[in-house]
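Give me the fold.
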Amino acid sequence: MSDDTSSRIEGFHKMEPDARLQAVARQAKLGNEAVATLADAASGQIELADRLVENAITSMAIPVGIATNVTVDGRDVLVPMATEESSVIAAVCNSAKRCRSTGGFRTSTSGPVMAAQIQLLGASDPENVRLKVLERIGEIKAICDETDPLLLKFGGGFQDLDIRVIDTAEGPMTVVHIIVDTRDAMGANAVNSMAEALAPKLEEWTGARSLLRILTNLADRRLARVRAVWPAEEIGGEQVRDDMLSAYHFADADPYRAATHNKGIMNGISAVVLATGNDTRAIEAGAHAYAAKDGWYRSMTRWEKDGDGNLVGILEMPLAVGLIGGATKIHPTAQANLKILGVKTADELARIIVSVGLAQNFGAMRALATTGIQKGHMALHAQNVALMVGAVGTEIDKVAEELKTLGKVRQDLAEGILARLRGEA
């Protein structure tokens, strides 16, 4: 936008999406081609987009690919993954194939339990406040369950209390955690509503003032766990196995390495979360917080060598996903992707997602310990670079192949190759 363009558009939120797009085009001085691109991108989706977010003008498609070869608890599944990053889906396919002979991925979960926090302030006796609240657990359960009777009908509802007194820069405060079984829902709306309903009563019982009333995305009571075994011969031999273990120990000891190591895990996790209409930001926040639960940021995965010389991978992390509510329930693509997965419960979905995360980590570590990450990644990236410089049709593959032959996937080289193909050089 130019310096003389205002971000103020009177009545913008009341406009229809096409009118908003035209208003933005005028303000940002977009050309006809840009406007047409934005309008075309929303084709068939703009009404849904307008219901999902505020001030919608278009939609932005993320590619959805299928990870094959995945076996979870003895069942083969095709896994939709929504991502814009090259090599992510290929890595899962390859990694899952290499552990099929040992049964694939074996999982467990701790149950669909979420927590909301209620912050209590202004009490000079925070420990006394804690006990006062614990004495009311029966009344607290009744208030929470009355807030969401449908959840109670399906076997969920209030489970327990966890009350902490924490030291802060402004002194101690009491924090009440209500623990709720949310069944097949992610549960944010349910636990937030319960916290809102309970807060006035906590004030009445304790004399403290309630401030924040909100769920925590550190869902450490809602864990998904997976393990898998890769025979040394499927990895590339004992040296590759040992090098992968060294790579893991590096990530577990150094937060600079752990950040990228864990980002690779989340490449797989977030792609399935997004494809099923779940909240990627909530999952990512919880995962990274859990990775620091021991007081330092470390690898989310654990890797070992078993007695037979096989490589064993383990991943345990919070996974608060749901099948009902939000975009998961109303987005047709998310619904179709859930049908591809063949899941009937949020628990089944979490088991598949955590398996994909472990597969992704195996693939990244093996690439790093052998050819390096760039060879496979940049080979797939070559087509993206060809598209970036304007290649079309058969030109895309020709430019990509020449870049791979050169071993350098760069935009300037791609521009030169394309010019030569077109006789412009």
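The chain is about 50% helix and 20% strand.
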